[in-house]
Design goal:
mainly beta; six-stranded mixed β-sheet; five-stranded antiparallel β-sheet
C-alpha cells in the first residue's frame, strides 16, 4: 500500500471521474478558492487548471467523464469545463431565480438546476442550448432520482399541500407518468438498481415506505410501527432483491422483492453475545524505537514516529460491551438509529452504523441473514465505503488512519504524513486499485494491490 503526498482541497470537493480515466478532481484551496485542478490518477500530474468566477461549492463529473460541472450557489452560476477542448466552456446564470442545487442528467449533455425556494427545475441542454422547466419540485433531501440505465427520471413534487411523483423520459424530457404519493411529507425517493421499482419514504415523524412500479402503480406499502420516529436511511441491494430500511429504533429491516414483506430485522444491541460473531477491537500500540537510533535533537521522521499513536486490531472474546451513547431527548435530529447503510457490490454483505453506538461498524452476512463481524474503533465512524470490485470495506474515523476489512481479516494503516491529517471522508476509484482520503483542507491518494486485504 502506497500513499501520495498531500494536496490542497476545500469543501471536501474531490471526485474521481466515473470511468476512472481522467483522474481525481480537487478544488484548489490555497490563496484562491475558485480553482479547479484535474490530475492524472496514476501520476497525480496536473492535466488541466481552470479558474471559476467565484468559490466553488459543488462539482460533478458528466457520466462520460468529458465535462465537469462547477456550481457557485451564492452567485446563482454554474460553469462547465471540457477536458477534450480546454478552451471551450459554458456558463449558466440563473439570475434572480437563484440556485440551490445542480446536477448532470445521465447522458452528460443536460444540466438540471433547482432554483431558490424550489420554484422550479431548469433543464439546460449543452447541445441545442434549449431550456425546459419542471414546476413545483419538492424541497426534500432526495427529490430527484434517475434509473441506473439513465432512461427515466423521477421527481418529487409538492402542490396544493400534497405530494406527487412525476416520471420523465430523459431522452426528450416528456412526462411519462404523474401520480399522487400517499405520504404526509415525502422525504426521499430512490430507484431500485434494475429500474423497475421506485421506493418513496415519508418524513421521520411517520414510518412509511411506498413502492411504485414504473407506470405509477402502488405495489406495496410497509409500516413497521406507529407513533415514534421512523425511517432514517435506506439502501437497495445491487441485485434489487433486497431493500434495507434503517430506522430510529436502532434496527434494520430487510424487505424482499417478491412480496415486499419483511424477511428479517437486524438489531444493534450494545452487547454482542453470539459466539459466532467476530468482534475486531482497535487497540493502541506505542511505537517501538531502538535506543541506538535515539539522538538529540531527534530527526523529524523519528520525532513524528515517536509521538504518533499506532493501532492494531485484537479479536475480542464475547460477550463484548460496546460504547453506547444515550441521545439527548429534547433536541432536534437526535443522534440515534441507523444513520449509514451500504451493501457490498457482490450482494454478500451489508455494512451498517447505529448512531447510538458511534464507534462501531456492523457487517452482516446477507446470504445467512446473520451478524458476521463488528469493528469496534477507538473514535467515532466518519465514513465507510465498499470497494466497487470486491467485498472490501474502507473505514475512516477522523484520524490519520484508514481501516480495511475483508472476509480474510482486518487491518489498520497509518497514513505516513507529517502534521495533522484527519480523514473525514473517502472514495474508491472505479477500478478498486486506489482511493482518495479527504480531510477538511487536504487530500491524498492511497494505492492498493489487488491482493491486499
Amino acid at each position: 500500500m502506497n500513499f501520495s503526498e498531500l494536496f490542497k482541497l476545500s469543501g471536501l470537493l474531490g471526485r474521481f471521474s466515473p470511468d476512472g480515466s481522467c483522474g481525481f478532481v480537487p478544488v484548489q484551496a490555497s490563496c484562491v478558492q475558485y480553482r479547479l485542478v484535474v490530475r492524472d490518477v496514476s501520476t497525480l500530474q496536473i492535466l488541466q487548471l481552470y479558474t471559476c468566477l467565484d468559490q466553488i461549492q459543488y462539482i460533478e463529473w458528466s457520466s462520460d467523464s468529458l465535462f465537469i460541472l462547477c456550481a457557485m450557489y451564492k452567485r446563482g452560476i454554474v460553469q462547465v469545463w471540457s477536458l477534450e477542448q480546454p478552451d471551450w466552456h459554458c456558463k449558466i446564470d440563473e439570475g434572480s431565480a437563484g440556485l440551490v442545487a445542480s446536477c448532470w442528467s445521465p447522458d452528460g449533455r443536460h444540466i438540471l438546476n433547482t432554483t431558490e425556494f424550489h420554484l422550479r427545475i431548469t433543464v439546460w441542454s449543452l447541445c441545442t442550448k434549449s431550456v425546459s422547466y419542471i414546476k413545483y419540485p419538492k424541497a426534500c433531501q432526495q427529490g430527484i432520482a434517475f434509473t441506473k440505465d439513465g432512461r427515466y427520471m423521477a421527481v418529487a413534487e409538492r402542490r396544493d399541500c400534497k405530494d406527487f411523483i412525476s416520471i420523465f423520459v430523459c431522452s426528450d424530457w416528456q412526462l411519462l407518468r404523474h401520480f399522487d404519493a400517499e405520504t404526509q411529507d415525502l422525504f426521499g425517493i430512490e430507484w431500485a438498481p434494475n429500474g423497475c421499482v421506485l421506493a418513496v419514504w415519508d418524513t421521520c415523524l411517520e414510518y412509511k415506505i411506498l413502492l411504485y412500479s414504473l407506470d405509477g402503480r402502488l405495489l406495496s406499502t410497509y409500516r413497521a410501527y406507529e407513533w415514534s420516529l421512523g425511517i432514517k436511511s435506506i439502501a437497495w441491494s445491487p441485485s434489487s432483491q433486497f431493500l434495507a430500511i434503517g430506522s430510529y429504533d436502532e434496527k434494520v429491516r430487510i424487505l424482499n422483492h417478491v412480496t415486499w414483506k419483511k424477511i428479517t430485522e437486524f438489531e444493534h444491541p450494545a452487547t454482542i453475545a453470539n459466539t459466532k460473531t467476530i468482534v475486531y477491537k482497535e487497540v493502541e500500540k506505542s511505537p517501538s524505537v531502538e535506543t541506538e537510533r535515539l539522538s538529540f535533537p531527534p530527526t523529524r521522521a523519528l520525532a513524528s514516529s515517536l509521538f504518533s499513536t499506532q493501532s492494531k486490531y485484537d479479536i475480542s472474546q464475547v460477550p463484548v460491551s460496546l460504547q453506547y451513547i444515550k441521545p439527548v431527548a429534547d433536541r432536534a435530529n437526535p443522534k440515534m438509529g441507523i444513520g449509514m447503510l451500504a451493501f457490498s457490490p457482490d450482494n454478500c454483505f451489508l455494512a451498517t452504523k447505529n448512531d447510538n453506538i458511534p464507534n462501531a461498524v456492523w457487517i452482516w452476512d446477507v446470504q445467512k441473514l446473520k451478524l458476521f463481524v463488528v469493528l469496534e474503533q477507538l473514535c467515532a465512524i466518519q465514513s465507510f465505503q465498499w470497494d466497487p470490485r470486491q467485498p472490501r470495506l474502507a473505514v475512516c474515523t477522523g484520524n490519520s488512519k484508514v481501516y480495511l476489512w475483508s472476509p480474510a481479516g482486518c487491518v489498520s494503516v497509518q497514513v505516513p504524513m507529517e502534521g495533522d491529517f484527519q480523514i473525514v471522508s473517502l472514495s474508491w476509484h472505479s477500478s478498486g486499485d486506489s482511493m482518495a482520503l479527504l480531510s477538511k483542507d487536504n487530500f491524498c491518494v492511497c494505492y492498493l494491490e489487488r491482493e491486499e486485504v
